[in-house]
User: Which sequence fits this backbone?
């Protein structure tokens, strides 16, 4: 598959850019933050995006989707990244939906996915129990109770957990924290008894929550009981991949704004873009971004071909995008000087989102370690 | 951002030991005997005058809570007593109320002050930036008018330097001051003015000749911030509320007698003050050390403050911090901190004979701020998602403080002259590379 | 160092896949049917004409030793056969002896060539640098005189660009050429001339108007290196003997008809050739891939060539390379290599429509050479003291070769335009930053 | 103790600079290399240095020394570093002598040390058995034989081993490779039977050898049998410290020559030192070197006070000097452009020596690991 965008993808890109810059510029996120909006994103906007067919872009037609690929989905995430648009895309339409798609039986599967595709149903993945990404370090317990399971434990950094209708909870039926075996995925109604959700105020003004489970009943098991790691890993790889696309968009926008500033800001009677030290740093950013763009595209192609390289490529992509997002957002701030430090400017929003995305699903050194392990050294 | 945010200073200064007493106004070398008697004198004065609440508690003592009414009262008393002896500015001439001490005496004073577990009070923009410049370049009348107030910290000063269009290029400033009778009438705006909303007076750069080349039309003037026509609005930062303000001037009137140096020759004064500022920023935290003095102890020192912060989040493996890449980076930062601290000490020794700060201040300012940014980034990585909170539940207070501190640290390499400007200064002034 | 050391190219090129056939002289698109018949044609031609010793051995075959008399003979034969078909320069016009192929045909040719486990022969300064420039900017007579020789590799060319005082600032060159009758008389010196001691002719930048602004007095001329007055001395590098030479000219006579383009307008030609050079440096290694074609395989690819080199020296712990800091760096380098390779592919796709190389060639040249330097440094660390040998006993041949290669790699970011120059080009041409 | 040089140290510095630049400029090393000199350094020069009292600078007077400190010794090593002067200083007067001083009994101790101080006796430490510094990874065996011990094993990278009169061999009496216990130091006559020494040609044109021991008899045990690691560690820390001083000198000289070149070389009609990108890189080097200078001085002070921080400070110093030497020597080459790649210029000598010194006694990451371990994390 090609790494350059196809004509169709270019059209999707320009449609998305137009729609998102009109409906969800950075001011949109700022407004939600300043008004301390209880949802943290616009449900109306989300439904608009569903109507455009974006939410179910990769779902099959039976689930109300458009049967397109991650290559197309990445185009949307890149555009959302440019304006830092807050939506439940990652939590519902990728993480949650991939778990359901791969793990749920019909008719539950189609029922939930079409709800998601229509922008009605929101999902969230309740995974993290530590401050660092470690998907098998699970102590939340799933215990047999009658026909089903009840779950007990505590989860943090649950993206969009505060508004999700259903939670996909990662819990353990056997083994010890750190074991890949014994991990299962359980679908839980957020309003079920024993479920307590509290929103946590994040630095990037996006949405996350803590979830406490106290013998909360599961409505269904996704995948094999105790063998959920296969589904989980596939969902996480895809979630990580689209997060990379988001970072790529964010960093591209940050870079372009910075280059523009270098061309217009004057100090010492000249444009600051004439300073060679800044030029060289801009050239470095340009190259690093070009490399990021290529690996993101390749990763999406591999996902769409369901190739055996997906995990390795996802790690290359996340390591690189974490580093690039960090580099570009820091340089953006430094090169803008004092104005970048003010809340009034949007620069801080880019810096904050880049840092959160950097740590989400493992940072660069996590993914270098994972890649090396996958390569067997 | 031109100015220094005092609140943030501890983020990048607390691990630096700048030799504060470089001795700008040293006198004749006293003999060892008289030094010893001076030491005794200081020691008994301290015993009598330094309130217990202003010292680190001795073994077995219960510390007074910070900010308790008693401690606040004591702090005022301690400042007043020190100011009366001139000890807030130990080396300044006694005729203006300074301590009048020689280099050696000042050193003794600081040793004894450290030995009782306290610090000399009153460090401020007045004592460390404006004061030295006034003593060097002000006229007799100006010194008599302002130096005693500075020593007693009677006025809080704000620094009117940066403007919205003139950040790194400070000399591009556009705030106008026109002579009308025995006053100057000021119009324009300053930004990044630390603590302007709590300050009494401002030392301010103004353009008094708009037609001259940009460095030649600037003057350095002092005026009261309570004057009519001054408007002050605080600035919100990416890390939240700040001490920074934007200050607007509309026909503000300043007395012409408070113009320092010659009219249109203010640039040299401005630069001199910047050198003192860089020294202060890069070097703060000197003064009171731990009880027990500076003698090398027979136990190995511990350099693991970052590791201790990281451990609860990262965990251990085989007795080592479990994330090896992080451990490597963290260790490099600890090491660089040690090396930087030693360098401030070594350079301090080497320039002892010199008067005033040298251009290496640029190196310290630049390196210390970049190092702090690095430190904050590494700790953010170490704390993981617990470092990503903004407010509310789910985060401990020190975690939220870390997040704000991390964000705030991004300004360190911009305020007080950007890292880029500091590197230019090193290349030009220290290395002699051509323009 | 201006020129490219062919011997060293594999150090930084072998892991790059530059889309070699960007199609500078593309023709009309052929229909799929005629393409298929072309493929059959090529396939049978290859089966008949490509000697077994010039292919990778098939399963079960014994490879012929490289450099054996048979293989050397076969290599000549293979070159001659390809040249006769114009396949050394597949897309060049047939009228000058080129292949006259369309983009699509060239692609088919390369696929089939790769499928039998070989490469198109004859890559040289002639085919990849001088030839394209002559076709674009030479006159009819010059094309007829030189292009067929280039296609057949009958002459080895040297590139007379850099001078001792003009490295990065190529246009500062001082070698003079004065017109005398129908000749130019050349005096001066060139340095970093790759393979001049084995070359037949030189394409050379000379100053034909010393009074004009520096870019306006340069001409581009070809002449025979066997001419009287040419002295060639090889240069020894920090890595040992090299293909580089310094070349001195004393009243060397070149025919005026061999001046390419207009007199004093040689700078534009020089720059154009440099773009082709950068493309070649950053992109070599295209062409023959492994047998089996480019279809994505259903087994995960292996990216562990550096780890395999490091393992015998560093050892394993829990199945991981035992030095964790090294493992992290090494992995980053492997990852960056993957990303760079993909980027050459992506940019290749994106510029397919364009004619000739674009300015991103600067990015590839810079990044690939810096990446190779990084790779060499990491492997040196991995090999430890075994990477520190120079000659003699105690070291294996591949260890000594590594040491030389590590040292040689330091020149990569200097020759062919320094990294600094490449970054300037990116900033100016790609990002549009002001001068 | 002060970090700035004392007046006495400054005098030593200028004496040393004068002597070394006159007698051992880089051309001296080049000459030895080009003539394939069998010794690899000048014995005459070494005796001259002994006469100046430099070789025995830190030895006590009873051993013919001057009883000065490492603070002074470091001044000499810095100056030797500036011109890359090849001498057996490190091997004989530091590594070997420290082992003898700490481990040998009188009268052997004073006898050997005064021989060293006079420039007559040469010592070498035969330690490495791996391509990476790992002082307890010792498989060379010391077996009881009659009254004494015989040694069997193979050593590499033995500095000046090809001309040493006596070798200090690190061998194991018990335990397994990697154990600190069971390591002993044995004094061996290089000409004894069972000892085979072959010189290895190093990239920095300095001197190293492989030593094969086939039941070679030890003349004496230095320190405790099987408890030699204490002596070894102390000697290695001091050897590493002076190596740091050498790198500091080397890097300072490389930096100064580079700054000078930036001030004189013209391209594009201007001095290349006017380019801001190069200015900033020069400023970085300046700062890193200043920090290196401070830690080297502090480390020497700690050694002279025999303080408990010596191992930690040595690791800080070696990590920093390894990095600084590498940074400055690479920048020196890049900033000089093509000329730096020629063997005719001296730049390659600096690059090569910096790389060898970087890997000697552990590189930067080795010492960061060691420091962290010493700090207990």
Assistant:
């Amino acid at each position: 598959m090609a790494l350059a965008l196809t004509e169709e993808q270019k059209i999707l890109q320009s449609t998305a850019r137009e729609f998102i810059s009109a409906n969800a510029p950075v001011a949109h996120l700022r407004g939600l933050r300043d008004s301390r909006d209880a949802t943290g994103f616009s449900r109306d906007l989300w439904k608009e995006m569903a109507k455009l067919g974006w939410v179910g872009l990769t779902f099959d037609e039976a689930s109300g989707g458009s049967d397109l690929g991650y290559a197309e989905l990445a185009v949307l995430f890149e555009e959302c990244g440019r304006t830092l648009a807050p939506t439940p895309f990652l939590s519902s339409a990728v993480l949650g939906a991939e778990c359901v798609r791969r793990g749920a039986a019909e008719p539950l599967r189609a029922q939930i996915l079409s709800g998601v595709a229509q922008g009605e149903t929101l999902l969230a993945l309740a995974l993290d129990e530590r401050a660092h990404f470690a998907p098998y370090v699970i102590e939340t317990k799933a215990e047999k109770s009658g026909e089903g399971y009840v779950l007990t434990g505590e989860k943090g950094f649950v993206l969009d957990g505060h508004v999700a209708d259903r939670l996909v909870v990662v819990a353990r039926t056997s083994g010890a924290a750190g074991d890949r075996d014994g991990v299962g995925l359980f679908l839980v109604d957020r309003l079920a008894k024993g479920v307590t959700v509290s929103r946590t105020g994040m630095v990037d003004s996006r949405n996350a929550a803590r979830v406490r489970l106290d013998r909360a009943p599961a409505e269904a098991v996704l995948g094999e009981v105790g063998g959920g790691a296969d589904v989980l890993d596939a969902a996480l790889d895809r979630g990580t991949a689209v997060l990379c696309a988001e970072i790529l968009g964010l960093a591209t926008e940050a870079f372009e704004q910075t280059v523009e500033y270098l061309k217009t800001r004057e100090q010492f009677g000249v444009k600051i873009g004439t300073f060679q030290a800044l030029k060289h740093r801009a050239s470095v950013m340009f190259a690093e971004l070009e490399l990021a763009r290529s690996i993101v595209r390749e990763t999406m192609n591999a996902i769409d071909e369901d190739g055996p390289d997906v995990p390795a490529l996802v790690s290359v992509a996340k390591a690189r995008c974490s580093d690039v997002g960090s580099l570009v957002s820091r340089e953006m701030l430094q090169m803008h000087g004092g104005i970048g430090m003010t809340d009034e400017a949007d620069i801080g929003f880019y810096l904050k989102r880049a840092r959160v995305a950097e740590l989400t699903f493992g940072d660069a050194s996590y993914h270098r370690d994972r890649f090396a392990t996958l390569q067997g050294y | 951002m031109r100015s220094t945010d005092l609140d943030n200073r501890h983020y990048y200064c607390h691990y630096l030991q700048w030799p504060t007493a470089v001795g700008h106004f040293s006198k004749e070398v006293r003999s060892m005997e008289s030094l010893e008697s001076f030491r005794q004198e200081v020691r008994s004065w301290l015993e009598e005058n330094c309130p217990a609440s202003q010292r680190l508690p001795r073994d077995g003592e219960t510390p007074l809570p910070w900010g308790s009414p008693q401690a606040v009262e004591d702090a005022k008393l301690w400042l007043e007593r020190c100011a009366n002896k001139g000890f807030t500015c130990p080396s300044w001439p006694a005729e203006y109320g300074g301590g009048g001490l020689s280099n050696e005496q000042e050193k003794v004073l600081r040793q004894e002050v450290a030995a009782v577990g306290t610090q000399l009070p009153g460090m401020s923009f007045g004592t460390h930036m404006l004061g030295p410049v006034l003593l060097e370049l002000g006229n007799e009348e100006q010194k008599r008018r302002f130096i005693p107030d500075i020593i007693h910290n009677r006025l809080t000063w704000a620094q009117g330097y940066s403007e919205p269009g003139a950040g790194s290029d400070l000399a591009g400033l556009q705030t106008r001051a026109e002579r009308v009778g025995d006053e100057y009438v000021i119009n324009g705006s300053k930004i990044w003015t630390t603590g302007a909303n709590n300050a009494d007076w401002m030392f301010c750069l103004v353009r008094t000749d708009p037609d001259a080349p940009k460095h030649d039309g600037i003057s350095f003037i002092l005026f009261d911030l309570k004057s009519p026509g001054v408007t002050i609005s605080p600035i919100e930062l990416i890390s939240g509320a700040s001490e920074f303000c934007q200050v607007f001037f509309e026909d503000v009137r300043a007395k012409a007698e408070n113009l320092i140096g010659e009219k249109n020759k203010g640039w040299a004064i401005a630069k001199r003050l910047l050198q003192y500022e860089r020294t202060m920023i890069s070097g703060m935290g000197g003064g009171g050390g731990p009880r027990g003095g500076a003698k090398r102890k027979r136990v190995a020192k511990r350099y693991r403050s970052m590791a201790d912060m990281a451990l609860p989040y990262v965990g251990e493996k085989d007795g080592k911090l479990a994330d090896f890449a992080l451990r490597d980076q963290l260790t490099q930062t600890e090491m660089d901190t040690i090396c930087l601290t030693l360098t401030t000490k070594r350079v301090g020794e080497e320039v002892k004979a010199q008067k005033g700060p040298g251009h290496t201040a640029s190196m310290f300012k630049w390196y210390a701020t970049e190092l702090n940014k690095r430190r904050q980034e590494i700790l953010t990585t170490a704390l993981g998602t617990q470092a990503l909170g903004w407010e509310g539940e789910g985060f401990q207070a020190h975690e939220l403080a870390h997040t704000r501190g991390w964000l705030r640290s991004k300004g360190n390499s911009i305020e007080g002259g950007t890292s880029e400007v500091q590197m230019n200064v090193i290349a030009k002034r220290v290395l002699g590379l051509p323009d």
